[in-house]
Amino acid sequence: MEKFLERFDRLLTFWCVLLTGAMTIAVITLVFSRYVLGITFIWAEESISVLFYATTYFGAALGVRCDEHIRIDYFTSKMAPSLERPVKVLQIVVVILLQVFLLRVGINWIAKVGGTLTPGLRIPVKFLYVMFPVNAVIVTFYESVRLVSLFRGKKLPACTGRAENEIQPV
User: Fold this and answer.
1) What is the rounded distance in angstroms from the CA atom of residue 27 to the CA atom of residue 21?
2) What is the pLDDT of residues 57-82, one digit of tens each?
3) I want to staple 114 with a disulfide (CB 3.0 to 4.6 A). Which of 13, 52, 110, 159 is the partner?
4) 1 near 7, Cβ under 8 Å?
5) How many folded domains does the chain comprise?
């Protein structure tokens, strides 16, 4: 399972880097064409927005994997050490249930409006909106792995691409 997790992490990281690179190139090209050549393209602006959404969704999934998502742990830091594990389990279960709900909502949403064409790219929005349920599946997968690791008493493998000497928050 660790090998699969590592490969999946690398693939998702590569995908995020690729999306970010494409977005960067698109922004530079669009700025150049607009301000130097005096030409603007609606489809280019829309594609940049889509790339931004994609980096946000898939980057958020990586944040969940690396346990770097936002949380306020004021109350959990004040709890007795014996409650740490049950609270972590509860947090993970709540996140999984929320993702399952979002997956259902996302699929219903795509079924209702998926045939509409985007104004600039002129493609069905279902090809863009699919990021929403895919992100829910990825986050559910990562949280399920975290839950299984917690029950087995094992620590999750380190995140791929994370620097060993990175400064950790206090």
Assistant:
1) 10
2) 999 999 888 888 777 777 777 888 88
3) 110
4) no
5) 1
